[in-house]
Design brief:
By secondary structure, the chain is an alpha+beta fold. The protein has 3 domains: about 90 residues; about 150 residues, no CATH class; about 110 residues, Rieske Iron-sulfur Protein (3-layer Sandwich). It has 9 helices and 28 strands. The strands form 8 sheets. Strands 1-15-3-2-14 form a 5-stranded mixed sheet. Strands 4-5-6-13 form a 4-stranded antiparallel sheet. Strand 11 and strand 12 form a beta hairpin. Helix 1 packs antiparallel against helix 2 and helix 1 runs parallel beside helix 3. The radius of gyration is 25 Å and the shape is elongated.
Length: about 400
C-alpha cells in the first residue's frame, strides 16, 4: 500500500504540473479540444492540489528514503530531482509570460526618426486624432503592447499563430486593468487580468473563463497595412521602434509579414481555404463572412454585401495593403471596377475616379469619401473557429 500511495502521488504531481501548461500552450493535440474550463480550474487550484499530494506522499517518501534498499532510495531520489526540474520548467520557463516579454524600453519615433522599413506591415490606430503604427514583426513577439493614444489607454495585441491584430481598451468595469499573457486556446493568445484572474481571448476580446466570463473589451478600430501606406494616410504618425533587448526575437519574425516564416504554426498556406490560408474577415450585424486573399490578389477589387452592408475590398500595388470600405455614398450603392492604374480605381455608376485613400479625385463624385469598414486579415483556421457561423 505504501508503494502504491507513493507511486500514485508522484504520478499525480507530475500530471497536474504538465496538464496545467499542456492545455494552454501549443503542444501536440492540446489546442483542438474544448478543455479551457478544466484548464482554468486546474490553474486556479493547483496550489492546494500540490499541498495535498505532497502531504499524501510525505510519509512514504520519508520511509522509503530511510528504510528501503539502496537502489529504491536512489530511484526515488532521482524521481524527486526530476520533479524539481519539471516544477521549475513548467512554472518559470514554459509559462507564456516567461517566454514573451513586454518591451523594456518602448520607443515611438516620428517619421523623420523612424528606422522601420516602409514595406513592413503595421497595425495602425487613430484615437482622438492621434495616429500610431505598431510593426507586426515587433508586436508579434510581444503579443501585447500598452500605450496611451490620444490620451486614451490602449493595448495593441497580436497573435502570430492566428495572424490576428486587435486594439482594445484595457478598462474593465470602469477601472484600468493590467493583463498578462497566460497561454492560448484553439491557437489564439489569452490574457489574464490582474484583478479577477479572468482569461480573455485575443481574437474577440471576450472573457472566456473566470469571474468575468462573457464580458467583452471595447475594441478600437484599427487597420493592417504597410508602414508606407499608413504614413501616406497619416504623415505625422508615431511609429513603434525595436527594443534592442529583443533583437533575436524580432529577427525570428522577419519573414512573418510575407507568410514565409519557418515556424509551421505561423507559415502561410499558399493555397486557398486551408487552415493557414489568408482570408479577410468582416462581421456586421452578427453576420460573419470570409474572403479569399488569393481572390483579392487576382482581382484587385472585390464587392459584396453582408447583412445589408455593401462592402468594397481594394488591394494596393504593394499586394500587402488592403482596404475595406462601405460602397454606399449618400443614398447610392456604387459598383466598382478593377484598378485603372496602380493608384486609382473607378466606380461604374458615374465613372468617377477614386484613390487608395478612399477619396474621389475626379468626376461627378469628386470630394466624396468612402467610409471604412473594420476588416481583418488572418488565418482561415482562426476566423472559422471564432466565427463558427461564418460564410465564405
Amino acid at each position: 500500500m505504501r508503494s502504491f500511495i507513493l507511486i500514485a502521488g508522484l504520478l499525480l504531481l507530475f500530471a497536474v504540473e504538465f496538464l496545467r501548461v499542456y492545455f494552454i500552450m501549443p503542444f501536440p493535440g492540446s489546442q483542438h479540444k474544448d478543455t479551457l474550463q478544466f484548464a482554468y480550474w486546474l490553474s486556479n487550484n493547483i496550489r492546494w492540489m500540490r499541498i495535498v499530494l505532497v502531504l499524501v506522499i510525505a510519509m512514504p517518501v520519508i520511509t522509503t528514503l530511510s528504510t528501503s534498499i539502496r537502489w529504491k532510495r536512489i530511484v526515488l531520489f532521482i524521481v524527486l530531482i526530476f520533479y524539481g526540474v519539471v516544477f521549475f520548467l513548467f512554472n518559470f520557463r514554459l509559462q507564456a509570460d516567461k517566454m514573451f516579454y513586454q518591451p523594456s524600453h518602448k520607443t515611438l519615433a516620428t517619421p523623420e526618426e523612424n528606422k522601420i522599413a516602409l514595406d513592413k506591415l503595421v497595425i495602425g490606430v487613430v484615437i482622438n486624432g492621434d495616429a500610431r503604427a505598431y510593426p507586426i514583426q515587433l508586436i508579434g513577439y510581444h503579443h501585447q503592447v500598452k500605450d496611451t493614444v490620444g490620451n486614451t489607454p490602449a493595448i495593441i495585441t497580436y497573435c502570430t499563430v492566428c495572424r490576428t491584430g486587435r486594439v482594445y481598451s484595457p478598462t474593465v468595469d470602469g477601472r484600468l486593468e493590467t493583463f498578462r499573457l497566460v497561454g492560448m486556446d484553439h491557437f489564439n493568445a489569452m490574457f489574464e487580468d490582474a484583478t479577477t484572474k479572468s482569461w480573455w481571448q485575443q481574437a474577440t476580446g471576450v472573457a472566456v473563463a473566470g469571474p468575468l466570463k462573457g464580458a467583452t473589451l471595447k475594441e478600437f478600430p484599427s487597420q493592417q497595412l504597410t508602414l508606407g501606406a499608413w504614413l501616406r494616410l497619416y504623415p505625422s504618425s508615431l511609429i513603434m521602434q525595436p527594443d534592442s533587448l529583443y533583437k533575436k526575437d524580432y529577427d525570428d519574425l522577419a519573414d512573418f509579414d510575407k507568410g514565409t516564416v519557418k515556424s509551421s504554426l505561423e507559415k502561410r498556406d499558399s493555397a486557398s481555404w486551408q487552415n493557414k490560408s489568408w482570408v479577410i474577415g468582416i462581421q456586421h450585424e452578427g453576420v460573419s463572412k470570409a474572403y479569399d486573399w488569393n481572390a483579392l490578389v487576382k482581382e484587385k477589387v472585390l464587392e459584396d454585401s453582408v447583412a445589408g452592408l455593401p462592402v468594397l475590398f481594394v488591394l494596393e500595388k504593394d499586394t500587402a495593403t488592403f482596404h475595406a470600405w462601405n460602397r454606399r455614398v449618400d443614398s447610392t450603392v456604387l459598383n466598382f471596377e478593377k484598378n485603372i492604374s496602380n493608384e486609382t480605381f473607378r466606380d461604374k455608376n458615374t465613372g468617377s475616379v477614386w484613390n487608395m485613400d478612399g477619396t474621389c479625385v475626379d468626376g461627378n463624385l469628386k470630394g466624396k469619401i468612402l467610409r471604412p469598414v473594420q476588416a481583418y486579415q488572418e488565418f482561415w483556421h482562426s476566423w472559422k473557429t471564432f466565427h463558427p457561423n461564418t460564410t465564405r
